[in-house]
Fold:
Amino acid sequence: MNELHKEKIEVNNLNFYYGEVKALKDINFHIHGNKVTALIGPSGCGKSTFLRILNRMNELIEDARVEGEVLINGQNIYRSDVDVVELRKKVGMIFQKSNPFPKSIFENVAYGLRVGGFST
Structure:
């Protein structure tokens, strides 16, 4: 495959759970570089859940868990040695509505400071 269009994101056997509820089942997906990719589907089908998996934002939700493999540029982003802050700098998210994290107002405001190295 042309170097410009090689796989940038590869998802293998992905399952995602909110507690005991399986929200995504057996997802296998490849996204190539320098291509436009669209995720479409009805409300509630898992598009946003899948996108949050790509930068590990679901880890902020209690009892959420991921099974399977997510590779970005060949690196498994769910390895324990992956710096989540650095990952999120490279895998940005722009939301249709700006929703805070499912935390208190204080925790939402303090999050940016904590990520920047400040303590609260």
